[in-house]
């Protein structure tokens, strides 16, 4: 049955509005928006007096990596790098069972909801058992991710990873990578099952060729063709995500093998367009920045993970100057906090440029509003376009701000978004978090928080012993 929400103060796609009546269908999509409305006598819906903003989209997640957050912060021998972190990650990977994955992902998605994320793109590569054997249900681990989304209530776009090689030039996978690997035929079978699961769970899916070092041209082409066959469309509803240029070593290896830089090679060999998401397009030269921005592909910027791993700076000022589309991801989940990802994206650039309010719509405009609006819209584009703004035919995914919170009191309009992002205190700026028109989090508590937390504590104890 359709439900209604009466919002006193809400950030719609066109800007702030007052006294707005939202009608939401059974699947959680907004079907009508009536501005300057009044509450009728027979109104049976929910009245929300506090200010409402669209939920944030987290377009890059590796759920299981959260279980090792904080474990890779001790120095090893000599200089430490992404590649030493990856070694610890591989050790951890070998232990995770399907039950563990479901419990970790459920707890992670609960944390995301509490932190303002209402959708997640799961770049999922842990497919097989600890020996590298396929489970009898080939999509066992994928199904656990769908279950985690159901348990937590978050919107999911599953991006099953296609991984074949350990390095450029089709180097055989290492023993540590055996849980990730598929042939083309096996990957097609996996996609067939996931396509059905996505329908059953009313979620979305796409593909994720892991990186140019892990698959070749024919693999990427094969995966895209199979996705198109399954979905009958080559649009943003069937997204294609890839890790592209996170580390300088990757750029140098790509130059050595293909004689070209990763982003440029990809754009020369495939038609980049709005269905693509380039994750960690960290190392781009000027011409690559222009090409990606012009293509309307989304870039996924994972500020806190990229900082934690020492990746480098994304060329945000140039990318913005060419009207590039972008979103944010929490990736390894060293931080699960939408405002922190955006604040540090801005702060990096303030520190580099010795200036303030770097990313805005121009003179006298709001920094926080620009960051929130563009990250939510770009993130949504990269996950199938179901959310990212409060508008007709989008999911009713939103955050209710606590206007009386110590950080937000007295603010109005875009000042609220600025203060939500930049005024960081130990406080509770969110009253509630809603997905598909359902309230999932209230006063920082998820509806199933106790059980989800208890299960997670048990699994993490087991994994660390
Ligand atoms: Zn990643």
Detailed description of the structure:
The protein is of the alpha/beta class. The protein folds into 2 domains: 3-54 and 389-449, Roll (Urease, subunit C, domain 1); 56-382, Metal-dependent hydrolases (TIM Barrel, Alpha-Beta Barrel), CATH 3.20.20.140. Helices cover 37% and strands 20% of the residues. It has helices at residues 82-93, 98-114, 140-152, 184-200, 217-231, 248-258, 262-269, 286-295, 303-308, 316-321, 338-353, 367-382, 414-422, 449-464, and strands spanning 3-12, 15-24, 30-34, 46-54, 56-61, 117-124, 155-162, 204-205, 208-209, 240-243, 276-279, 298-301, 325-328, 398-401, 430-435, 438-442, 445-446. Strands 3-2-1-4-14-15-16-17 form an 8-stranded mixed beta sheet, covered by helices on one side. Strands 5, 6, 7, 8 and 9 form a 5-stranded parallel beta sheet that branches. Helix 4 links the parallel strand 7 and strand 8. Helix 2 (98-114) runs parallel beside helix 3 (140-152) and helix 2 (98-114) crosses helix 14. The radius of gyration is 22 Å and the shape is globular.
Q: What's the structural blueprint in terms of helices and strands?
A:
Blueprint lengths: L2 E10 L2 E10 L5 E5 L11 E9 L1 E6 L20 H12 L4 H17 L2 E8 L15 H13 L2 E8 L21 H17 L3 E2 L2 E2 L7 H15 L8 E4 L4 H11 L3 H8 L6 E4 L6 H10 L2 E4 L1 H6 L7 H6 L3 E4 L9 H16 L13 H16 L15 E4 L12 H9 L7 E6 L2 E5 L2 E2 L2 H16 L1
Parallel strand pairs: 1-4, 5-6, 6-7, 7-8, 7-9, 10-11, 11-12, 12-13
Antiparallel strand pairs: 1-2, 2-3, 4-14, 14-15, 15-16, 16-17
Bound molecules: zinc ion.
């Amino acid at each position: 049955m359709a439900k209604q929400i009466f919002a006193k103060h809400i950030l719609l796609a066109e800007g702030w509005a007052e006294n707005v009546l939202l009608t939401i269908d059974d699947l959680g999509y907004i079907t009508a928006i009536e501005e300057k409305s009044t509450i009728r006598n027979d109104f049976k819906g929910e009245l929300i007096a506090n200010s409402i903003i669209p939920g944030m989209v987290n377009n890059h997640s590796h759920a299981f990596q959260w279980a090792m957050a904080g474990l890779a912060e001790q120095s090893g021998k000599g200089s430490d790098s992404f590649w030493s972190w990856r070694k610890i990650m591989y050790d951890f990977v070998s232990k995770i069972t399907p039950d563990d994955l479901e419990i970790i992902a459920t707890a992670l998605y609960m944390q995301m909801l509490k932190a303002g994320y209402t959708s997640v793109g799961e770049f999922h590569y842990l497919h097989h058992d600890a020996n590298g054997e396929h489970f009898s249900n080939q999509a066992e681990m994928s199904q656990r991710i769908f279950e985690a989304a159901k348990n937590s209530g978050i919107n999911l776009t599953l991006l099953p990873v296609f991984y074949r090689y350990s390095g450029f030039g089709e180097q055989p996978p290492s023993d540590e990578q055996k849980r990730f690997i598929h042939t083309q035929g096996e990957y097609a079978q996996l996609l067939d099952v996931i396509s059905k699961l996505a329908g059953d769970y009313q979620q979305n899916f796409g593909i994720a060729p892991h990186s140019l070092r892990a698959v070749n041209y024919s693999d990427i082409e094969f995966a895209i063709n199979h996705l198109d066959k399954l979905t009958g469309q080559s649009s943003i509803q069937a997204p294609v995500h890839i890790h592209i240029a996170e580390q300088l070593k990757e750029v140098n290896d790509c130059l050595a093998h293909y004689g070209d830089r990763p982003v440029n090679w990809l754009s020369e060999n495939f038609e980049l367009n709005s269905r693509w998401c380039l994750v960690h397009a960290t190392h781009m030269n000027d011409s690559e920045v222009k090409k990606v921005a012009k293509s309307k592909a989304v870039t996924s910027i994972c500020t806190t993970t990229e900082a934690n791993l020492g990746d480098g700076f994304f060329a945000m000022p140039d990318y913005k100057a060419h009207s590039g589309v972008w979103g944010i991801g929490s990736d390894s989940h060293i931080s699960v906090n939408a405002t922190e990802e955006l604040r540090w994206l801005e702060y990096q650039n303030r520190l580099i440029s010795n200036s303030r309010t770097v990313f805005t719509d121009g003179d006298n405009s709001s920094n926080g509003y620009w960051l929130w609006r563009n990250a939510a819209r770009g993130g949504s584009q990269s996950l199938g376009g179901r959310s990212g703004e409060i508008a007709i035919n989008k999911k009713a995914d939103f955050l209710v701000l606590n206007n009386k919170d110590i950080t937000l009191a007295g603010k109005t309009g875009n000042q609220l978004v600025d203060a939500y992002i930049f005024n960081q205190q130990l406080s509770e700026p969110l009253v509630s978090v809603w997905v598909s028109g359902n309230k999932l989090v209230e006063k920082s508590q998820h509806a199933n928080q106790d059980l989800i937390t208890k299960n997670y504590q048990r699994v993490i104890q087991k994994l660390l012993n």
